[in-house]
Amino acid sequence: MDEQDLDRTQESLASLATPEYEATLRALSQASVDRNFDAFVDVPWDDPDFRIDPSDRHWVLTEADPLGRHPWYQNLPVERQIEIGMWRYANIFKVGLQFENLLIRGIMQYVFTRPNGSAEFRYLTHEATEECHHTQMFQEFVNRSGQDVKGGTLLFRMLAPVLPLFAKWVPFGFFYGVLAGEEPIDHVQKSILRAGDDMHPLLQRIMQIHVAEEARHIGFAHQYLEHKAPRLKRGERFVLSLLVPVIMRWLCNEILVPSKRAQRDMGIPEDVMKQVYWDAAESRKFLRDLFGDVRMLAENTGMMNPVSRRVWRAMGIDGRASRFRSEPASAAA
Ligand SMILES: [Fe+2]
Ligand SMILES: [Fe+2]
Q: How far is the CA of 207 from the centre of ligand 2 (A)?
């Protein structure tokens, strides 16, 4: 591509912007300026109440965690429950920060191509800044937990260098991937906070900060995808419609299912793994409920058609679409 082609592409990209979309991005950018957190200012790491004590019962997994609900876990001696709980929280934060790292790098690829005056450039660099703080906050938790966790599966870690390039090649697919990481973490963190169980203050503080900033990130991804969807070519739309549920399920598994190594380290028996992830009826409901908002978005962005619906079902993440964002899933769904 020579320089003229590049200019032409950038001009045509700029012409895709609409005033409402730009205004939303400016509002999100202002919100980032007005309310943001710093990992080492807003978390009192050295406060004695925030100390991580390996004999503290706060680290026992609650019912909000699919593993915490399982009788195998509940019947373990409490010291073992604490050990596994701490390992589990540390590993979730580790995968979380690996995702955020991918997202930051993808954002940098994407904003490199934005024309001058782009509202996407401004908003997305705010988002990357916030994600940098999250990776610091999560890594600090992992360090202080004393757990030498690896995060995602080997495959995921091997693909990590190339995944951000999709932000340049197929930004639409990339931002769906971003939601595949952000929606399950956000959903789980919100339900833990909502349940109001007796939480460790450090965990609570980290989750509060994260949920507050993720609301903007998820809001942006929805806006971006709804804005770009009408500009997709028919063939592109169809191929993406089949890929979206696969991306959702794959990345959700990366975040929520302990890897083989994690399973070994925590000593979880094979049959318990199978039931929890995701054979038990309760687990299947939990999995479907994670994606109510994404199903709504898929409807709004033309990603639902008779063939793609079958893929959603095959991935075990079909079901009713939310009517509005963060609508609580019904008990019966
Ligand atoms: Fe984050
Ligand atoms: Fe985020």
A: 12
